[in-house]
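User: Run a structure prediction on this.
Assistant: Running it now.
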Amino acid sequence: MRAPLLRQRRGLGVTALIGAVFLVAGCAANDNLSEQYREGNDKGFISGDFRVVEIPERERGDSVTFAGVSERGEAISSDDYQDRVYVVNFWYAACGPCIAEAPLLEEVWQEYQADDVGFLGINIYDQPGTAVSFAEDNGISYPSVIDVNEGSVKLAFAAATPIQATPTTLVMDRDGRVAARIIGQLPSASILSTLVGDALGEEP
């Protein structure tokens, strides 16, 4: 299988990679950002904080069901990702950490396209034109749902796992359940790549 081979080739598990990042960035919780989310302040973001939570298969909740419209006016729903591993990234254009991690997300998306892994952005603040400009300026080729008006897509995921700040990145398993959560700016493509490989390596 491709995923185990990838993990052997990298020679570093998620734990080792995260440990190295913690030495640089630390992992203190930010209660103010959690409060911002509860109050509906979408513009809070984590700066310097970074956490990864992997969820064992037996502890995962229900499948996430959502429907929305992309920045280019295309309908997107959870049905499009049925029986697939996929990545969800919550972002907006003026978020500094979102800008910094954009090429890393695209890198992992390109790495796993042959494995039918899906990628989806959830833009929680911008209008479609701003999101399109961001994608063009940063070389992002996967779609984003525009969720600024009703916030229903964000709430669908928040019902399944805490989304405390922007950016937050989720790895979804083939049953549409949250398998891993990255809180804060993604510091390297390797961390997300390993999490995606782990999800692909699970028995269908």
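The mean pLDDT is 82.
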